[in-house]
């Protein structure tokens, strides 16, 4: 029988749901705190009691990413794979993959100095959105509506010691309804889709910032674009986020490697945790 391992660094609704559902299915399952794992270049797979397939659910992008590299080195099957996590955890790399595979996205610019960033912004025109290339829950995402605000935010970024803060990811502000779409993609299937609406006095739609979720129909267009996006970054268990542009239709703006699904679970008829478990077991049985 397949043994499932859930690696975490904080137990949230999602990790608890996966663990509880797996036990109900009769699947031997263990929870392992990423912070407790140590691996060396001499480690052997048999020394780590991690089961047959590992769901990487660490909140910390870099902790989860490099732990995945280590356990893949030992021959474990990890969902999602290192290359998928590396791409999805970096908005710049994600945008390049989506563009290469001709997935519709917002127009996005990359600059590598404060001066070059302001040149791009002035050439493009306001408003635009400035995002960190690594980050989640809408942290560090700023709408730049005029030159004064743009200069202030970029100056703040330049004073930050984080070298990633000196890489500027500038995206057009899409004319959309006050919502976006999240699709939960598991393998080659969209198992749930929800609209995410902004909270009061908040333009970002993240449920973690008080946004609300509502079930969304899975149209042919949505399915085709979301699955293309998932395949472009390497597939697995992913959250594909899209916006509804009034002229161009659906645009993919982000893909989440460690997708949260509490909001989707509250409004969707699909048992999301169960679908993730079934997929994970099927991967290792192939």
Can you give a write-up of this model?
This protein is an alpha+beta fold and 286 residues long. The protein has 3 domains: 3-87, Rossmann fold; 108-172, ATP-grasp fold, A domain (Dna Ligase, domain 1); 175-271, D-amino Acid Aminotransferase, Chain A, domain 1 (2-Layer Sandwich). The chain is 35% helix and 26% strand. It contains 9 helices and 13 strands.
List keywords for this structure.
single chain, 286 residues, alpha+beta, Rossmann fold, Dna Ligase, domain 1, D-amino Acid Aminotransferase, Chain A, domain 1, 3 domains, five-stranded antiparallel sheet, four-stranded parallel sheet, 13 strands, 26% strand, globular
User: How many structural domains does the protein architecture include?
Assistant: 3
Low-confidence stretches: none
Strand order of the largest sheet: 11-10-9-12-13
The CATH architecture of the largest domain is: 2-Layer Sandwich
CATH class of the largest domain: Alpha Beta
User: What is the β-strand count?
Assistant: 13
CA-CA gap between termini: 13 Å
Q: Element order, helices and strands?
A: EHEEHEHHEHEEHEEEEHEEHH
Total number of helices = 9
Mean pLDDT: 94
